[in-house]
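Batch job 17 of 40 flagged for manual review because the log was empty.
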Amino acid sequence: MIPNLCRKVILEGTRLTHKTDVAFALNEHSRFVGRRKYRYHSPIISAEWGGLENEAWGQSLINFELSNERRAIETFELWIKLMERLPYISWIIDRFHLSTSMYQQLYHRKTYDLAWLEERLLGLGFRLVLCYREPRTFAKARKNRLKISGNPSQYADVERFVREQESLVRLFDESTLPKLMVNATDDDVSRMTEEIVEWFVPRQAVAGQKTRNWMDLMLTQLRKCYNAYE
């Protein structure tokens, strides 16, 4: 009998941290979604979709203005209801509630209580991955991204990404979901993907405490990196 793999992951991080690249790579990884004889897809969704306005790169569930607040929160409710009704498939989310909290706190000075959403995500078995890079490397990553970007203006302020990442690290630390930090500094999407897959499907059993200690170490190293940057 073919096993039904129902992996559920939220990939968080600011721009230039390869979240979307990793999402597509996970969707084709045999140990994550199962072996396939032809290309197929699991649901890959994103709170970054600018569907609240009829314009390119319009307001999304992350950067919505007050005029779209109700619609944005209702859309989160619709997404979680859909996931609860289809729990036996894999869900890959490229930015979700942490990015919303980060953006709204930094740029609108508003805090939304999304604990209800995280509680339901936890009940569905979602795990949280934070993709991050060392602050000093954002400028180089930006230069490479501008070669292919259809909206280069969104990469104008590198310092903005540093601030956003610092906020996301704090929100990540506060999250109740099972979580993993993955370093995107070397731009190695394959290695990042393998780290996540190994976390979900370890080749050898790893004690939970060992995983927790590793993550504490990564958080400590990232804080030191920010202190050095400042």
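Reviewer: the log was empty due to a logging misconfiguration, but the result itself is present. The mean pLDDT is 90. Unflagging and moving on to job 18.
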